[in-house]
Amino acid sequence: MIEKHLLQITRELGVNARQVAATAVLLEEGATVPFIARYRKERTGELDEVKITAIRDRIEQLEALDKRRETIIGSLAERKLLTTELEVKVEMAETLAALEDIYLPFKPRKRTRATIAKELGLEPIADLLWRQDPATDPEAEAAPFVGNSIEVDAKKSSVETVAQVLAGARDILAERINDDAVARAQLRSLYLNKGVIKSTVISGKEEGGAKFKDYFDWSEPAATAPSHRILAMRRGETEGFLYFRLTPPENEALGSLYMLFVKGNSRASEQVRLACDDCLKRLVGFAMEVEARGFYKKQADEEAIRVFADNLRELLLASPLGQKITLGIDPGFRTGCKVVLLDRQGKLLANEVIYPGKGRNDELETAEAILNMVRLHKVEAIAIGNGTASRETEAFIKKLGLPSSIPVVVVSESGASIYSASEVAREEFPELDLTVRGAISIGRRLMDPMAELVKLDPKSIGVGQYQHDVDQAALKRSLDDVIVSCVNRVGVELNTASRHLLAYVSGLNSRTAASLVAHRDTSGPFKSRAELLKVAGLGPKAFEQAAGFLRIRGGAHPLDASAVHPERYAIVDRMASDLGCTVSDLLKDSAKRATIKLDAYVTSEVGLPTLKDIMAELAKPGRDPREQFEAFSFAEGVEKMEDLQPGLNLPGIVTNVTAFGAFVDIGVHQDGLVHISQISDEFVKNPADFLKVGQRVQATVVEVDLSRNRIALSLKTKVDLTPRQPKGAPGSDRGKGDMSRYLRHDSGKPGTGGGDWFSMAQERKF
């Protein structure tokens, strides 16, 4: 298959044919994307994961196209409709749309108005009209067909007037026009390039659909409509509040059909013209609208999925505190704070409940309990979930006078409740209460965010945009790719990692990861990577794919803790031997490494790209690519929305980046919105170019709406705090003090886009 599509993929992706062919072979052999990108650079010409993934996906798409092509040819051959000319057309079709257009006239279909007209014997008059001879008199030619009849299911049907004969003939012509591949291609282009999206409110649904108010009477070109607006309108349609259409200028669509099928101004031509009108309104127009809607839905999905994937990547690669003895606290008022003590590997040592806000005696008792725990177990860090009572709990802990060397960090607990009730949590801690499991997850997130987050369904983390509205299979595929990429980029400690984390290592899956953990539990820690081959179900191929991404501290070979693949140990051994030292000496001595001439170690399989990677690993074996952890604190004394005032400048953390702006946590239990127009003094086209999830920012409060639980923020150096609504903007009659100026999700110009996104944000459907 790859030979057939090699040039097409090469042209589309901007890579050379050798790179595509080599990648295709490696994928077919079972190699994973991270493995190919890291350890097969010579074969692919140093393609990165993005290009390799694009090649993989395009191959799969073309394979699906070929499968459909084979099905069509088989159907045509079986019904004895396949001609040499038709087979060539089918084989040459480059897109699914073009393929379906070719097949449409031959596709088995239910009885239509056209088939009924043919059964009534009206095809001869249709053919006559189709020729559009100026001398043809349609009425006179139709007269002999009056009285034609058929009997279907014991019911007789007949044409009784000349008008009915001509109407039946036009039905045949309309279907003929609908089946024309050229006409469909032209109309498809028109719908895609000049189609206009229009949404209107369904009568009587105004109050219930208030969150879609800006789309009650909205229109814009589909080609320039941003992803989030298309998804918002579609959601309004799905929920039964909006009527949503996508249509091109009707005169241009009809003109396209007239140019193709209408010849002259004869009376017969007028019948063809009427057939064109009917075809557009009843047949091809509907089909093209469905296609165009599908096209823009897919495009919007891809953008929303890309935003989600980018956010998830930043979240997974967030700075880890590392292996520290940690207190994890899940704060609460009524039920108290659940406190867990975790060792350096994240194992639970103890747990209890404290009540810091129940009165002086309880506070003294709680303070003593925390201080004793810190002293007795030499606690090195404290993680507090950012839910209800988090700021009060943080303030209480900071008043205890703990050593400054113990960071007190507020940690996002998005998805922690999902984890607590999950099968994964029940398997890890079957005897513990849900809230205790949540506290453990909070503590572990501080120690190593990625290792804990991989246990969750990414959709529960809350960093997506319209995640429930997009293609769920495509979303899962993309998010899985991100997790696999991040896990393998960082590497995994073989002797401490959970099976959930190991399952994302290249070459492993949930089954082999479980076998690996079971082997570790029964036989003790792995002493070398070579011992992986003793794990049940983990064969040479899986070993090849996984070994380089698994780390063993203090392993039998010094490189077992590095990203150097075992298949290349011999090269490093030879380097050390040539210098008259050991591999351990080579790892410690930069002067010795500097004398190595890489050209001397180039072989037919190992080139300079791999050798350079090896040298980088020798300099920093097993280095973690994530940034070094730095503790973050919210502003003291600002703990709830009532504490906010316009103009207040506060530290915050970006919790979500969307196409229309970003959410920022400023420590008041409600994220604020930084609209795209408020992100920078520069023009911002894509918020992701300026902000990342987890990024620390200084945000200025612009407006606070306590009644609707909304906060508008700005990251600009000079902030205009005067609430105003631009003239002519949708909803500009809402009142001078309304926050909509800052809460719109357009392409970057304040007040020019629609949708009460904030209401939908509260539903956590982004």
Explain this structure.
The protein has 766 residues and is an alpha+beta fold. It has six domains: 2-106, RuvA domain 2-like (Arc Repressor Mutant, subunit A, Orthogonal Bundle), CATH 1.10.10; 113-148 and 157-308, Orthogonal Bundle (Tex N-terminal region-like), CATH 1.10.3500.10; 327-447, Nucleotidyltransferase, domain 5 (2-Layer Sandwich), CATH 3.30.420; 473-560, Tex RuvX-like domain-like (DNA polymerase, domain 1, Orthogonal Bundle), CATH 1.10.150; 564-621; 641-762, Nucleic acid-binding proteins (OB fold (Dihydrolipoamide Acetyltransferase, E2P)). Helix content is 45%, strand content 12%. It has 30 helices and 17 strands. The strands form five sheets. A five-stranded mixed sheet has the order 8-7-6-9-10, with helices on both faces. Strand 1 (149-152) and strand 2 form a beta hairpin. Helix 11 (162-178) packs parallel to helix 15 (267-316). The protein starts with a helix and ends with a helix. Mean pLDDT is 90; it is low at 726-766.
